[in-house]
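Q: For a teaching session next week I want to show students how multiple molecules come together into a single three-dimensional assembly. I've collected the sequence lines for a complex. Could you give me the predicted C-alpha coordinates for the whole thing so I can convert them for display?
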Amino acid sequence: MKFAGQSVPHESARGHVTGEALYTDDLAGRFPCLLHAWPVMAPHAHGLLTALHVPDGQQQEEAAA
Amino acid sequence: MSFAFTLNGDAVHVDAIPAQTTLLDLLRSRGLTGAKEGCAEGECGACTVVTMRPNGAGSAFMPVNSCLMFAPMAAGQEIYTVEALAGRGPLVAAQHAMVDHGGSQCGYCTPGFVMSLFAEQYRAGREGPCGEHALSGNLCRCTGYRPIRDAATSLGAPDADRFTARMALPAPNCGALEHERFLRPSTLADCFAALATHPDARMVAGGTDVAVESNLRGRRFDWLISLEALQELRGFCESDDAVEIGAGLTLSEIAALWKSAPAVWHDWLPLFASPLIRNRATLGGNIATASPIGDAAPLLLALDAGVRIAGATGERILPLDEFFLGYRKTALRPGELLVSIILPKPFARQTRFYKAAKRRVDDISTVAACFALDIDDHGVVRRARLAYGGVAAVPLRAREAEDAIIGLRWNESAVHRAQDILARTLHPISDHRGSAEYRSSLAQNLLEKFWWQQQEEAAA
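A: Of course. Below is the structure for the complete assembly, covering every listed component.
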Protein backbone atom coordinates (compact mmCIF):
# COMPACT_ATOMS: atom_id res chain seq x y z
CA MET A 1 0.00 0.00 0.00
CA LYS A 2 2.61 2.53 -1.02
CA PHE A 3 -0.08 5.21 -1.55
CA ALA A 4 -1.74 4.84 1.88
CA GLY A 5 -1.44 8.04 3.89
CA GLN A 6 0.12 9.88 0.96
CA SER A 7 -1.36 12.91 -0.70
CA VAL A 8 -1.51 12.15 -4.41
CA PRO A 9 -2.21 14.99 -6.83
CA HIS A 10 -5.23 14.71 -9.13
CA GLU A 11 -3.97 13.16 -12.37
CA SER A 12 -5.53 16.02 -14.35
CA ALA A 13 -4.57 18.81 -11.93
CA ARG A 14 -2.04 20.42 -14.24
CA GLY A 15 -4.56 20.45 -17.07
CA HIS A 16 -7.14 22.05 -14.78
CA VAL A 17 -4.94 24.86 -13.44
CA THR A 18 -3.47 25.75 -16.84
CA GLY A 19 -6.71 25.57 -18.81
CA GLU A 20 -5.22 22.85 -21.02
CA ALA A 21 -7.86 20.32 -19.96
CA LEU A 22 -10.40 20.28 -22.77
CA TYR A 23 -14.15 19.94 -22.20
CA THR A 24 -16.83 19.26 -24.78
CA ASP A 25 -17.44 22.89 -25.64
CA ASP A 26 -13.68 23.53 -25.83
CA LEU A 27 -13.34 20.74 -28.39
CA ALA A 28 -16.22 22.01 -30.52
CA GLY A 29 -14.20 24.97 -31.80
CA ARG A 30 -11.21 22.77 -32.60
CA PHE A 31 -13.05 20.73 -35.24
CA PRO A 32 -14.36 22.82 -38.13
CA CYS A 33 -17.69 21.73 -39.61
CA LEU A 34 -18.42 19.65 -36.52
CA LEU A 35 -21.96 18.27 -36.53
CA HIS A 36 -23.82 19.42 -33.43
CA ALA A 37 -26.65 17.27 -32.06
CA TRP A 38 -29.55 19.07 -30.46
CA PRO A 39 -32.13 16.94 -28.69
CA VAL A 40 -35.74 17.82 -29.46
CA MET A 41 -38.56 16.73 -27.20
CA ALA A 42 -41.47 14.92 -28.82
CA PRO A 43 -44.65 16.98 -28.62
CA HIS A 44 -46.72 13.75 -28.43
CA ALA A 45 -46.52 11.24 -25.59
CA HIS A 46 -47.10 8.16 -27.79
CA GLY A 47 -46.28 9.37 -31.29
CA LEU A 48 -44.73 7.21 -33.98
CA LEU A 49 -41.63 8.67 -35.66
CA THR A 50 -42.18 8.34 -39.40
CA ALA A 51 -39.80 10.93 -40.86
CA LEU A 52 -37.32 13.71 -39.98
CA HIS A 53 -37.34 17.04 -41.76
CA VAL A 54 -34.85 19.90 -41.76
CA PRO A 55 -36.77 23.01 -40.68
CA ASP A 56 -38.05 25.18 -43.53
CA GLY A 57 -35.74 27.98 -44.54
CA GLN A 58 -32.58 26.25 -43.29
CA GLN A 59 -29.89 25.48 -45.80
CA GLN A 60 -28.82 21.88 -46.13
CA GLU A 61 -25.30 22.87 -45.03
CA GLU A 62 -26.60 24.39 -41.80
CA ALA A 63 -28.85 21.65 -40.54
CA ALA A 64 -29.04 17.93 -40.88
CA ALA A 65 -31.63 15.44 -39.78
CA MET B 1 -14.28 49.13 -38.10
CA SER B 2 -11.84 47.31 -35.90
CA PHE B 3 -10.17 47.62 -32.55
CA ALA B 4 -7.01 46.43 -30.90
CA PHE B 5 -6.00 45.24 -27.48
CA THR B 6 -3.15 43.38 -25.84
CA LEU B 7 -3.82 39.74 -25.10
CA ASN B 8 -1.34 37.70 -23.08
CA GLY B 9 1.38 40.14 -24.12
CA ASP B 10 0.61 40.17 -27.85
CA ALA B 11 -1.18 42.84 -29.89
CA VAL B 12 -4.52 41.60 -31.22
CA HIS B 13 -6.62 43.25 -33.94
CA VAL B 14 -10.29 42.44 -34.05
CA ASP B 15 -12.26 43.13 -37.22
CA ALA B 16 -16.00 42.98 -37.77
CA ILE B 17 -17.38 41.42 -34.62
CA PRO B 18 -20.89 42.12 -33.35
CA ALA B 19 -20.67 44.65 -30.51
CA GLN B 20 -22.53 42.41 -28.06
CA THR B 21 -20.16 39.46 -28.49
CA THR B 22 -18.76 38.79 -25.05
CA LEU B 23 -15.05 39.04 -24.42
CA LEU B 24 -15.30 35.42 -23.26
CA ASP B 25 -16.62 34.29 -26.65
CA LEU B 26 -13.94 36.31 -28.41
CA LEU B 27 -11.19 34.70 -26.33
CA ARG B 28 -12.57 31.20 -26.78
CA SER B 29 -12.95 31.71 -30.54
CA ARG B 30 -9.20 32.38 -30.60
CA GLY B 31 -8.55 28.98 -29.03
CA LEU B 32 -8.06 30.30 -25.50
CA THR B 33 -10.58 27.92 -23.96
CA GLY B 34 -9.23 28.02 -20.40
CA ALA B 35 -11.89 30.57 -19.47
CA LYS B 36 -15.26 28.81 -19.42
CA GLU B 37 -18.88 29.83 -19.58
CA GLY B 38 -20.77 28.54 -16.56
CA CYS B 39 -23.61 30.96 -16.05
CA ALA B 40 -23.10 33.89 -18.48
CA GLU B 41 -24.27 36.29 -15.73
CA GLY B 42 -21.24 36.88 -13.55
CA GLU B 43 -22.19 34.48 -10.81
CA CYS B 44 -19.87 31.49 -11.23
CA GLY B 45 -16.56 33.14 -12.13
CA ALA B 46 -15.47 30.32 -14.48
CA CYS B 47 -14.79 33.00 -17.12
CA THR B 48 -12.40 35.05 -14.96
CA VAL B 49 -9.61 36.86 -16.77
CA VAL B 50 -7.27 39.60 -15.54
CA THR B 51 -7.00 43.15 -16.88
CA MET B 52 -4.30 45.69 -16.14
CA ARG B 53 -5.58 48.75 -14.31
CA PRO B 54 -3.71 51.88 -13.25
CA ASN B 55 -2.28 51.79 -9.74
CA GLY B 56 -0.31 54.93 -8.95
CA ALA B 57 2.56 55.14 -11.40
CA GLY B 58 2.35 51.40 -12.05
CA SER B 59 -0.48 49.01 -12.61
CA ALA B 60 -2.42 46.23 -10.93
CA PHE B 61 -3.85 42.90 -12.05
CA MET B 62 -7.61 43.14 -11.76
CA PRO B 63 -9.74 40.01 -12.16
CA VAL B 64 -13.06 40.41 -13.99
CA ASN B 65 -15.85 38.29 -15.44
CA SER B 66 -15.13 38.08 -19.18
CA CYS B 67 -18.74 36.99 -19.81
CA LEU B 68 -19.92 40.42 -18.65
CA MET B 69 -17.66 42.42 -20.95
CA PHE B 70 -18.69 43.15 -24.49
CA ALA B 71 -15.68 42.55 -26.72
CA PRO B 72 -15.26 46.24 -27.71
CA MET B 73 -14.89 47.10 -24.01
CA ALA B 74 -11.50 45.39 -24.27
CA ALA B 75 -10.31 47.93 -26.87
CA GLY B 76 -7.06 49.48 -25.72
CA GLN B 77 -6.88 47.23 -22.67
CA GLU B 78 -4.29 44.67 -21.66
CA ILE B 79 -5.79 41.30 -20.80
CA TYR B 80 -4.36 38.06 -19.50
CA THR B 81 -5.99 34.65 -19.55
CA VAL B 82 -5.02 31.52 -17.63
CA GLU B 83 -2.97 30.41 -20.62
CA ALA B 84 -0.52 33.28 -19.93
CA LEU B 85 0.42 32.16 -16.41
CA ALA B 86 2.50 29.05 -16.95
CA GLY B 87 2.68 29.20 -20.72
CA ARG B 88 4.63 26.10 -21.62
CA GLY B 89 6.87 26.52 -18.60
CA PRO B 90 6.56 25.82 -14.88
CA LEU B 91 3.34 26.54 -13.01
CA VAL B 92 3.04 29.85 -11.19
CA ALA B 93 2.49 29.81 -7.42
CA ALA B 94 -1.32 30.08 -7.57
CA GLN B 95 -1.45 27.09 -9.92
CA HIS B 96 0.98 25.09 -7.81
CA ALA B 97 -1.05 25.79 -4.69
CA MET B 98 -4.24 24.52 -6.32
CA VAL B 99 -2.49 21.34 -7.48
CA ASP B 100 -0.76 20.70 -4.14
CA HIS B 101 -3.92 21.21 -2.07
CA GLY B 102 -6.24 19.19 -4.27
CA GLY B 103 -8.19 22.29 -5.30
CA SER B 104 -9.74 20.75 -8.40
CA GLN B 105 -12.01 17.84 -9.09
CA CYS B 106 -13.87 18.19 -12.39
CA GLY B 107 -11.67 21.22 -13.07
CA TYR B 108 -14.20 23.29 -14.98
CA CYS B 109 -14.21 26.18 -12.49
CA THR B 110 -10.47 25.88 -11.77
CA PRO B 111 -9.04 28.34 -14.33
CA GLY B 112 -11.38 31.00 -12.89
CA PHE B 113 -10.26 30.30 -9.33
CA VAL B 114 -6.65 30.35 -10.47
CA MET B 115 -7.04 33.78 -12.07
CA SER B 116 -8.73 35.28 -9.00
CA LEU B 117 -6.08 33.74 -6.76
CA PHE B 118 -3.25 34.91 -9.01
CA ALA B 119 -4.55 38.50 -8.98
CA GLU B 120 -5.00 38.38 -5.21
CA GLN B 121 -1.47 37.14 -4.64
CA TYR B 122 -0.06 40.03 -6.72
CA ARG B 123 -2.41 42.66 -5.27
CA ALA B 124 -0.37 45.66 -4.20
CA GLY B 125 -0.33 46.27 -0.46
CA ARG B 126 -1.62 42.81 0.43
CA GLU B 127 0.01 41.34 3.51
CA GLY B 128 0.11 37.83 4.96
CA PRO B 129 -1.62 34.82 3.39
CA CYS B 130 -4.12 35.27 0.54
CA GLY B 131 -7.66 35.74 1.79
CA GLU B 132 -10.46 33.40 0.81
CA HIS B 133 -12.76 36.42 0.30
CA ALA B 134 -10.87 37.20 -2.89
CA LEU B 135 -12.43 34.01 -4.24
CA SER B 136 -16.03 34.82 -3.33
CA GLY B 137 -16.87 35.51 -6.98
CA ASN B 138 -15.94 31.96 -7.95
CA LEU B 139 -18.24 29.01 -7.41
CA CYS B 140 -17.22 25.35 -7.25
CA ARG B 141 -19.78 22.57 -7.24
CA CYS B 142 -17.67 19.46 -6.69
CA THR B 143 -14.28 19.95 -5.01
CA GLY B 144 -15.56 21.68 -1.95
CA TYR B 145 -14.13 24.94 -0.76
CA ARG B 146 -11.80 23.71 1.96
CA PRO B 147 -8.97 22.58 -0.32
CA ILE B 148 -9.40 25.75 -2.39
CA ARG B 149 -9.22 27.88 0.75
CA ASP B 150 -6.15 25.90 1.84
CA ALA B 151 -4.54 26.71 -1.50
CA ALA B 152 -5.31 30.42 -1.01
CA THR B 153 -4.04 30.64 2.55
CA SER B 154 -0.82 28.83 1.58
CA LEU B 155 0.15 31.73 -0.68
CA GLY B 156 2.20 34.64 0.64
CA ALA B 157 3.87 37.50 -1.19
CA PRO B 158 4.88 36.75 -4.80
CA ASP B 159 8.49 36.39 -5.82
CA ALA B 160 9.96 39.04 -8.10
CA ASP B 161 9.16 37.77 -11.58
CA ARG B 162 7.83 38.91 -14.95
CA PHE B 163 4.47 39.75 -13.36
CA THR B 164 5.89 42.00 -10.65
CA ALA B 165 8.03 43.62 -13.36
CA ARG B 166 4.85 44.26 -15.38
CA MET B 167 3.20 45.87 -12.35
CA ALA B 168 5.94 48.49 -12.18
CA LEU B 169 4.93 49.78 -15.62
CA PRO B 170 1.86 51.93 -16.33
CA ALA B 171 -1.46 50.45 -17.43
CA PRO B 172 -2.83 51.30 -20.87
CA ASN B 173 -5.16 54.25 -21.19
CA CYS B 174 -8.48 53.48 -22.85
CA GLY B 175 -9.64 56.27 -25.11
CA ALA B 176 -12.42 56.97 -27.56
CA LEU B 177 -13.73 54.12 -29.70
CA GLU B 178 -16.25 53.57 -32.45
CA HIS B 179 -16.87 49.95 -33.30
CA GLU B 180 -19.99 48.81 -35.12
CA ARG B 181 -22.78 50.20 -32.96
CA PHE B 182 -20.62 50.55 -29.86
CA LEU B 183 -19.46 54.11 -29.13
CA ARG B 184 -17.03 55.07 -26.39
CA PRO B 185 -16.72 58.86 -26.27
CA SER B 186 -13.83 60.29 -24.27
CA THR B 187 -15.37 63.63 -23.32
CA LEU B 188 -18.72 64.56 -21.83
CA ALA B 189 -19.37 66.90 -24.77
CA ASP B 190 -18.85 64.05 -27.25
CA CYS B 191 -21.06 61.85 -25.12
CA PHE B 192 -23.93 64.38 -25.19
CA ALA B 193 -23.50 64.64 -28.96
CA ALA B 194 -23.68 60.85 -29.28
CA LEU B 195 -26.77 60.74 -27.08
CA ALA B 196 -28.40 63.43 -29.21
CA THR B 197 -27.64 61.52 -32.42
CA HIS B 198 -28.77 58.21 -30.96
CA PRO B 199 -31.49 59.03 -28.44
CA ASP B 200 -32.47 55.36 -28.06
CA ALA B 201 -28.94 54.21 -27.29
CA ARG B 202 -28.38 52.24 -24.12
CA MET B 203 -25.72 53.74 -21.88
CA VAL B 204 -23.34 51.21 -20.39
CA ALA B 205 -20.61 51.62 -17.80
CA GLY B 206 -19.15 48.42 -16.28
CA GLY B 207 -21.76 46.40 -18.13
CA THR B 208 -22.43 43.95 -15.31
CA ASP B 209 -26.20 44.44 -15.69
CA VAL B 210 -26.51 45.26 -19.39
CA ALA B 211 -24.47 42.19 -20.36
CA VAL B 212 -26.80 39.93 -18.36
CA GLU B 213 -29.71 41.41 -20.29
CA SER B 214 -27.81 40.67 -23.48
CA ASN B 215 -26.55 37.19 -22.60
CA LEU B 216 -29.56 35.68 -20.89
CA ARG B 217 -32.51 37.57 -22.29
CA GLY B 218 -31.11 37.97 -25.78
CA ARG B 219 -31.71 41.71 -25.75
CA ARG B 220 -30.08 43.45 -28.72
CA PHE B 221 -29.37 47.18 -28.59
CA ASP B 222 -29.39 49.42 -31.63
CA TRP B 223 -26.58 51.47 -30.13
CA LEU B 224 -24.46 51.15 -27.03
CA ILE B 225 -22.74 54.20 -25.60
CA SER B 226 -19.95 53.29 -23.19
CA LEU B 227 -19.24 55.75 -20.39
CA GLU B 228 -15.95 54.12 -19.44
CA ALA B 229 -13.63 56.68 -21.01
CA LEU B 230 -15.31 59.73 -19.42
CA GLN B 231 -12.91 61.20 -16.87
CA GLU B 232 -15.70 63.60 -15.83
CA LEU B 233 -17.50 60.65 -14.18
CA ARG B 234 -14.44 59.48 -12.28
CA GLY B 235 -13.97 62.21 -9.69
CA PHE B 236 -13.82 61.62 -5.94
CA CYS B 237 -14.00 64.56 -3.61
CA GLU B 238 -14.41 64.67 0.14
CA SER B 239 -14.98 67.80 2.23
CA ASP B 240 -16.25 68.46 5.75
CA ASP B 241 -19.77 68.75 4.36
CA ALA B 242 -20.05 65.91 1.89
CA VAL B 243 -18.49 63.12 -0.11
CA GLU B 244 -19.00 63.29 -3.85
CA ILE B 245 -18.38 60.01 -5.67
CA GLY B 246 -18.03 59.90 -9.45
CA ALA B 247 -20.77 57.78 -11.00
CA GLY B 248 -18.22 56.04 -13.24
CA LEU B 249 -15.97 54.80 -10.44
CA THR B 250 -16.11 51.08 -9.82
CA LEU B 251 -16.96 49.79 -6.37
CA SER B 252 -13.37 48.59 -5.97
CA GLU B 253 -12.01 52.01 -6.95
CA ILE B 254 -14.28 53.75 -4.45
CA ALA B 255 -13.17 51.34 -1.73
CA ALA B 256 -9.55 52.28 -2.42
CA LEU B 257 -10.25 56.03 -2.54
CA TRP B 258 -12.64 56.43 0.39
CA LYS B 259 -10.24 56.12 3.30
CA SER B 260 -12.63 57.67 5.85
CA ALA B 261 -15.72 55.67 4.84
CA PRO B 262 -18.18 55.00 7.68
CA ALA B 263 -18.45 51.51 9.22
CA VAL B 264 -21.65 50.74 7.31
CA TRP B 265 -19.76 51.06 4.00
CA HIS B 266 -17.31 48.38 5.13
CA ASP B 267 -20.18 46.11 6.20
CA TRP B 268 -21.98 46.70 2.92
CA LEU B 269 -19.14 46.37 0.40
CA PRO B 270 -18.47 42.61 0.73
CA LEU B 271 -22.20 41.99 0.27
CA PHE B 272 -22.28 43.86 -3.04
CA ALA B 273 -22.24 41.09 -5.67
CA SER B 274 -18.68 39.66 -5.81
CA PRO B 275 -15.11 40.98 -6.04
CA LEU B 276 -15.13 40.27 -9.79
CA ILE B 277 -18.31 42.30 -10.27
CA ARG B 278 -17.08 45.08 -7.96
CA ASN B 279 -14.02 45.42 -10.19
CA ARG B 280 -16.29 46.39 -13.11
CA ALA B 281 -19.60 47.60 -11.67
CA THR B 282 -19.92 51.32 -11.06
CA LEU B 283 -21.89 52.99 -8.30
CA GLY B 284 -23.63 55.16 -10.90
CA GLY B 285 -24.59 52.11 -12.93
CA ASN B 286 -26.13 50.41 -9.93
CA ILE B 287 -28.30 53.48 -9.37
CA ALA B 288 -29.12 54.29 -13.00
CA THR B 289 -30.16 50.73 -13.80
CA ALA B 290 -32.80 51.28 -11.10
CA SER B 291 -33.28 47.67 -10.15
CA PRO B 292 -35.56 47.34 -7.12
CA ILE B 293 -33.06 44.85 -5.72
CA GLY B 294 -29.86 46.75 -6.52
CA ASP B 295 -27.51 46.64 -3.56
CA ALA B 296 -26.54 50.30 -3.47
CA ALA B 297 -29.89 52.05 -3.30
CA PRO B 298 -30.91 51.17 0.29
CA LEU B 299 -27.48 52.25 1.60
CA LEU B 300 -27.47 55.50 -0.35
CA LEU B 301 -31.10 56.30 0.49
CA ALA B 302 -30.37 55.81 4.19
CA LEU B 303 -27.35 58.13 3.87
CA ASP B 304 -29.56 60.84 2.28
CA ALA B 305 -27.73 60.72 -1.05
CA GLY B 306 -28.27 63.19 -3.83
CA VAL B 307 -27.41 62.63 -7.48
CA ARG B 308 -25.75 65.09 -9.83
CA ILE B 309 -27.27 64.80 -13.28
CA ALA B 310 -25.83 66.43 -16.40
CA GLY B 311 -27.26 67.08 -19.82
CA ALA B 312 -26.17 69.08 -22.82
CA THR B 313 -27.77 72.21 -21.35
CA GLY B 314 -26.53 71.99 -17.79
CA GLU B 315 -26.54 70.22 -14.47
CA ARG B 316 -29.06 69.59 -11.72
CA ILE B 317 -28.99 67.87 -8.36
CA LEU B 318 -31.84 65.64 -7.24
CA PRO B 319 -32.40 63.77 -3.98
CA LEU B 320 -31.93 60.06 -4.70
CA ASP B 321 -35.33 59.58 -3.13
CA GLU B 322 -36.86 61.36 -6.13
CA PHE B 323 -34.74 59.56 -8.71
CA PHE B 324 -36.59 56.23 -8.87
CA LEU B 325 -39.90 56.79 -10.63
CA GLY B 326 -41.05 53.25 -11.33
CA TYR B 327 -39.81 49.78 -12.18
CA ARG B 328 -36.43 50.40 -13.87
CA LYS B 329 -37.56 53.95 -14.60
CA THR B 330 -35.56 56.96 -13.43
CA ALA B 331 -35.79 60.74 -13.47
CA LEU B 332 -33.05 60.89 -16.12
CA ARG B 333 -34.39 62.77 -19.13
CA PRO B 334 -33.33 61.89 -22.68
CA GLY B 335 -29.74 62.99 -23.20
CA GLU B 336 -28.95 63.16 -19.48
CA LEU B 337 -26.60 61.03 -17.48
CA LEU B 338 -25.57 60.51 -13.90
CA VAL B 339 -22.33 62.34 -13.01
CA SER B 340 -21.91 61.70 -9.31
CA ILE B 341 -23.50 60.65 -6.06
CA ILE B 342 -23.34 63.14 -3.20
CA LEU B 343 -23.46 61.99 0.42
CA PRO B 344 -23.99 64.82 2.91
CA LYS B 345 -22.14 64.79 6.23
CA PRO B 346 -22.31 64.11 9.08
CA PHE B 347 -23.50 60.54 8.60
CA ALA B 348 -26.09 59.19 11.02
CA ARG B 349 -24.43 57.77 14.07
CA GLN B 350 -26.31 54.47 14.09
CA THR B 351 -26.37 52.89 10.65
CA ARG B 352 -26.57 49.28 9.55
CA PHE B 353 -27.12 47.47 6.29
CA TYR B 354 -28.76 44.08 5.89
CA LYS B 355 -29.01 41.86 2.85
CA ALA B 356 -31.15 38.74 3.00
CA ALA B 357 -30.28 36.39 0.13
CA LYS B 358 -30.02 32.68 -0.50
CA ARG B 359 -26.21 32.82 -0.32
CA ARG B 360 -24.26 34.95 2.13
CA VAL B 361 -22.24 36.59 -0.67
CA ASP B 362 -22.27 36.59 -4.49
CA ASP B 363 -26.06 36.65 -4.67
CA ILE B 364 -29.03 38.87 -5.42
CA SER B 365 -31.01 40.08 -2.44
CA THR B 366 -34.51 38.95 -1.54
CA VAL B 367 -34.82 42.00 0.69
CA ALA B 368 -32.14 44.54 1.53
CA ALA B 369 -32.48 47.21 4.19
CA CYS B 370 -30.42 50.04 5.54
CA PHE B 371 -31.37 51.83 8.73
CA ALA B 372 -29.83 55.12 9.85
CA LEU B 373 -30.83 56.75 13.11
CA ASP B 374 -29.71 59.75 15.09
CA ILE B 375 -30.62 59.21 18.71
CA ASP B 376 -30.05 61.97 21.24
CA ASP B 377 -28.66 61.69 24.76
CA HIS B 378 -32.15 60.98 26.12
CA GLY B 379 -32.62 58.01 23.82
CA VAL B 380 -35.04 59.90 21.59
CA VAL B 381 -34.98 59.45 17.80
CA ARG B 382 -34.14 62.76 16.13
CA ARG B 383 -33.68 61.57 12.56
CA ALA B 384 -34.68 58.27 10.98
CA ARG B 385 -34.05 56.70 7.60
CA LEU B 386 -35.52 53.27 6.93
CA ALA B 387 -34.56 52.33 3.37
CA TYR B 388 -35.45 49.13 1.57
CA GLY B 389 -34.86 47.21 -1.61
CA GLY B 390 -36.97 44.25 -2.73
CA VAL B 391 -40.23 45.43 -1.18
CA ALA B 392 -41.68 47.35 -4.14
CA ALA B 393 -41.05 48.16 -7.81
CA VAL B 394 -38.48 50.72 -6.69
CA PRO B 395 -36.00 51.03 -3.84
CA LEU B 396 -37.69 53.27 -1.28
CA ARG B 397 -37.71 54.91 2.12
CA ALA B 398 -40.52 53.84 4.46
CA ARG B 399 -41.44 57.42 5.22
CA GLU B 400 -44.54 56.81 7.30
CA ALA B 401 -42.63 54.45 9.58
CA GLU B 402 -39.75 56.94 9.76
CA ASP B 403 -42.08 59.78 10.77
CA ALA B 404 -43.79 57.60 13.35
CA ILE B 405 -40.62 56.99 15.37
CA ILE B 406 -39.19 60.52 15.27
CA GLY B 407 -39.57 62.02 18.73
CA LEU B 408 -40.09 58.61 20.36
CA ARG B 409 -37.73 56.91 22.74
CA TRP B 410 -36.01 54.17 20.72
CA ASN B 411 -37.26 51.08 22.55
CA GLU B 412 -39.12 47.87 21.75
CA SER B 413 -42.47 49.59 21.62
CA ALA B 414 -41.14 52.10 19.05
CA VAL B 415 -39.78 49.19 17.01
CA HIS B 416 -43.18 47.47 17.09
CA ARG B 417 -44.93 50.67 16.11
CA ALA B 418 -42.66 51.01 13.07
CA GLN B 419 -43.15 47.31 12.26
CA ASP B 420 -46.94 47.69 12.26
CA ILE B 421 -46.63 50.54 9.78
CA LEU B 422 -44.17 48.59 7.61
CA ALA B 423 -46.64 45.68 7.53
CA ARG B 424 -49.36 48.02 6.30
CA THR B 425 -47.39 50.22 3.90
CA LEU B 426 -44.91 47.89 2.16
CA HIS B 427 -46.35 45.81 -0.68
CA PRO B 428 -43.68 43.41 -1.94
CA ILE B 429 -44.29 40.92 -4.73
CA SER B 430 -43.93 37.14 -4.74
CA ASP B 431 -41.29 35.65 -7.03
CA HIS B 432 -38.71 32.85 -7.07
CA ARG B 433 -36.64 34.60 -4.39
CA GLY B 434 -39.44 34.81 -1.85
CA SER B 435 -43.15 35.26 -1.30
CA ALA B 436 -44.74 38.61 -0.56
CA GLU B 437 -45.46 37.44 3.00
CA TYR B 438 -41.85 36.36 3.53
CA ARG B 439 -40.53 39.65 2.23
CA SER B 440 -42.89 41.63 4.41
CA SER B 441 -41.79 39.63 7.46
CA LEU B 442 -38.15 40.15 6.53
CA ALA B 443 -38.63 43.89 6.19
CA GLN B 444 -40.14 44.07 9.66
CA ASN B 445 -37.81 41.60 11.36
CA LEU B 446 -34.66 43.25 10.02
CA LEU B 447 -35.66 46.41 11.88
CA GLU B 448 -36.08 44.39 15.06
CA LYS B 449 -32.71 42.72 14.44
CA PHE B 450 -31.20 46.20 14.10
CA TRP B 451 -32.66 47.14 17.48
CA TRP B 452 -31.41 43.96 19.19
CA GLN B 453 -27.95 44.44 17.75
CA GLN B 454 -27.92 47.98 19.09
CA GLN B 455 -28.80 46.62 22.55
CA GLU B 456 -26.01 44.06 22.33
CA GLU B 457 -23.54 46.74 21.29
CA ALA B 458 -24.65 49.05 24.11
CA ALA B 459 -24.26 46.23 26.63
CA ALA B 460 -20.82 45.26 25.38
